[in-house]
Amino acid sequence: xxxxxxxxxxxxxxxxxxxxxxxxxxxxxxxxxxxxxxxxxxxxxxxxxxxxxxxxxxxxxxxxxxxxxxxxxxxxxxxxxxxxx
Length: 85
Prior knowledge:
Elements: H1 3-18, H2 39-53, H3 68-80
Helix pairs in contact: 1-2, 1-3
């Protein structure tokens, strides 16, 4: 799965689950400040991303996530380094 594929999936989840305008979702968008995704919403986002990687996602992998690009990078790294899941 490419980073663009991951980004598109995140855009879809943010739009469908959190009613975020897809035009507002950019790689530089900050989850909390720009998209109003709080810590509870972030957990929901991780739960919805789980099927993407097909296994449990550890919250520690997402502790430093602040932007959409950070989420994309965290997920992309799980595809290429499955031991961190």
